[in-house]
UniProtKB/TrEMBL annotation:
Keyword RNA-binding: no
Keyword entries, A-Z: ATP-binding, Nucleotide-binding, Transport
One GO term (biological process): quaternary ammonium group transport
Protein name: ABC transporter ATP-binding protein
GO MF term (any one): ATP hydrolysis activity
Domain ABC transporter: residue ranges: 11-241
GO annotation, cellular component aspect: ATP-binding cassette (ABC) transporter complex
Domain of life: Bacteria
PANTHER family: SPERMIDINE/PUTRESCINE IMPORT ATP-BINDING PROTEIN POTA (PTHR42781), SPERMIDINE_PUTRESCINE IMPORT ATP-BINDING PROTEIN POTA (PTHR42781:SF4)
Length: 358
């Protein structure tokens, strides 16, 4: 028999519902996750992402709905019969064991022969860059090294899917960034399906092939990272990612029936798909798409008053008040483009004004 093929559905949730003490953590949730994908469940605290992961793992049972893994209905199958690996927020390292013994523990429980355990353990330690640390007591390793041991242990039994529940949340920023790159590298080398839970937007954007953004147990949107970041369809997703301005406008038609929107004190012709009907409508503009320099090169120009200038290291945020009283943030790399209290012109490309659908 052959295993699942890359691109085929490996995990599917169909109409899954779950409540805890009246709180909805999954509301008619349906998701399809492909073999070999790095798939992330992203959302704020209480959005249901960890509960969804636990239902896939079999640690929680849905109130209704269906969960399949590799085409098999596992809704009522216990965790140990699902061929899954799991990494938790805590390292869950056995303190009385060496790094190698930790990695090989699951294989020993499964009854693997000693020589095969030794070979697979060495392979996994090399994969995570800890070949020279196998004989060390696990408690003597750094936090990042312990997390690598936990990852190697989870991958050692060759699970069909690896579930990761905010595994980097306990690490400091520098180590967390390193581990993000390591996880992506290891995912690419093993081609194991990763289902990852996080509330960190940057983490999700950095590592994922696709992201499902959850809100109160509902999937607000599911798409590739760049599309979610640059062209969100819903107000919730637009507001969840940093640097997204949500502005109210009024859509009207001219005598020829061509749609236009009045927004920010400007009148802008609309074209393409997703144009809302006449009347009030919400639009988004990403902060980096509001330009304070070379304004004349952009077809859309706003007049704005600079309220605040905030230095954020790699970027500078300019808080602007537009002519219709709405505020927006423009991000640039220079802090000398405008001073608080000044009135300036701001440029925008037509394709960077995006209508929200919900």
């Amino acid at each position: 028999m052959t295993g699942p093929v890359l691109g085929e559905t490996i995990v599917e949730l169909s109409g899954v519902n779950k409540r805890f003490d009246g709180a909805v953590t999954a509301n008619n949730l349906s998701l399809s996750i492909e073999q070999g994908e790095f798939f992330t469940l992203l959302g704020p605290s209480g959005s249901g992402k960890s509960t969804v992961l636990r239902m896939i793992a079999g640690l929680e049972r849905p109130d209704s709905g269906r969960i399949t893994i590799a085409g098999k209905d596992v809704t009522h199958v216990p965790p140990w019969r699902r061929n899954l690996g799991m990494m938790f927020q805590s390292y869950a390292i056995f303190p009385h064991m060496t790094a190698a013994q930790n990695v090989g523990y699951g294989l020993k429980v499964r009854g693997w022969p000693a020589e095969k355990i030794a070979s697979r353990t060495a392979e996994m330690l090399e994969l995570v860059g800890l070949s020279s640390h196998g004989g060390k007591n696990a408690t003597l390793l750094s936090g990042g090294e312990q997390q690598r041991v936990a990852l190697a242990r989870a991958l050692a039994p060759q699970p069909a899917v690896l579930l990761l529940d905010e595994p980097l949340s306990a690490l400091d920023e520098k180590i967390r960034r390193t581990m993000q790159s390591e996880l992506k590298r290891i995912h690419g080398m093993t081609q194991t399906t990763f289902i990852y839970v996080t509330h960190d937007q940057e983490e999700a954007l950095t590592m994922s092939d696709r992201i499902a953004v959850l809100n109160h147990g509902v999937c607000a949107e599911c798409d590739e990272p760049e599309r979610l970041y640059r062209r969100p369809r819903t107000r919730f997703v637009a507001g969840f990612f940093r640097g997204c301005n949500i502005l109210q406008g009024k859509v009207e038609r001219d005598a020829a029936g061509n749609p236009r929107v009045r927004i920010g004190g400007a009148e802008i012709a609309l074209s393409g798909d997703g144009i809302p009907g006449d009347g009030p409508a919400a639009f988004i503009i990403r902060a980096e798409n509001l330009h304070l320099d070379d304004v004349r090169t952009y077809p859309i120009r706003f007049q704005a008053k600079v309220l605040e200038v905030t230095y954020r290291g790699t970027v500078v945020d300019y808080l602007l008040q537009l002519a219709d009283g709405q505020t927006a943030v423009a991000s640039a790399t220079s802090r000398s483009l405008a001073a608080p209290g000044t009135t300036i012109m701001v440029g925008l490309a037509r394709e960077d004004l995006i209508a929200l659908q919900g």
